[in-house]
Amino acid sequence: MTDFLALPDLALRTLGGSVTAATDESFAAKENLLNPWPPRFSPLTFGAKGQEYDGWETARRRPGPDGSLGHDRALVRLGLPGVVRGVVIDTAWFKGNYPPHASVEACAADGYPSPSELEDAEWTEIVPRSPLEGDSAHPFPVEVERRFTHVRLNMFPDGGIARLRVHGEVVPDPALLSGMTIDLAALENGARVTACSDMFYSAPDNMLYPGLARNQAEGWETARRRDGGNDWAVVRLAAPGRIAIAEFDTTNLKFNAPAEVSLSASDDASTWREILPRTRVQPDTRHRFRLDADAEAAYVRVDVHPDGGLARLRLQGTLTASGEAALQARYTALT
C-alpha cells in the first residue's frame, strides 16, 4: 500500500515545487508544506500570531450568513510533472488544531498558468475526502493513470497540515528534450536509480537531483565496506541515448569520496559493457570525462571503488530515435 514512498516527491521544494496560492495562512505559511526536512517543533515559541508551527495553518472558520463554513485549500505547482502514485498528508505536531478531513485534486495545464487561470482547469479528485488524525502521517495511494502538473490540497474546514508529499513517476514533455543535448541521468528528465548496493547514509536518487549539492547529505553516500568489494548503483536513463560526457561530482565529500569510479552501459540492465574504466577521482571535485561517441545505453551502472559517495552524476548526451519515440509514446498515452 505504501510502496509509492520510494518514488520521488514531485512536489518537493528542492525539485522546484511551489505553493502558489492558499485561501488563508493566518497562523503558519503555506510554503512550509513542501519543506524537504521532517516537520520540526519547538514548544512555547509564541509569536504575534500564536504558537509557531513548521507547517501550514489557517484561522478558525465561522459560519457565514448562509450558515456554511466553507473550507481552506492550497494550490501546489509540481516541481516535476508526472503520474502521481501516492500522497502523504502529514499533520505532525498539530494535535488540537488539525483538520478532521482532507482531499486532494490534480490537473494538467500547459505553460505557466497563474492561480486564477487554474480555477477553470479540469480538476480530477485523486484522494477523496478522508478522515485525518492529529500528529500523524496519512499515506493515500493514487490510481489515476494521467500526467499532472498541479495539485490542490483541501482541508475541511480549517486547521494545520505540516507537510504534503506527492510521490510519483516523472513524465517530461518530449518537446523540451528531443533533438537537444540533455542530461540523460537527470531525475527531472525521467531518470531513476533502480538498484544499488548500499544507501546507508543517503539515497542514490539524490545524485540525479537538479542543481548542486549544498552538503554531504544531499548526495549519495554508502557505509564503509570491509569485505573487499565495491559499491554501485544502476540508473535507468530518461530514455535510450548516446552519452557524450560523464560527470562525477564529489563536492562536499572531503573524506568520504571514492578512490575510483567506473561506468558501464546496458540496453536492459542484464548485461554490461564498460564505457569508462576505473578512473581515479579526487575529493570535493567535479570530474568530467569525454566518452566514446558510440556509448549508447538505456541503463548505466556507476561503480564507486571501494565505497564512499557522489554528490551528483551527470550524463550529457542525446536521445536515440527509439528513445525519442518512447518518450513521445508515454507522454501521449498519459495526456
Automatic annotation (TrEMBL):
Protein name: Probable allantoicase
InterPro entries: Allantoicase, Allantoicase_dom, Galactose-bd-like_sf
Transmembrane residue ranges: none
Homology family: Belongs to the allantoicase family.
EC number in record: 3.5.3.4
Keyword Transmembrane among UniProt keywords: no
GO BP term, example: allantoin catabolic process
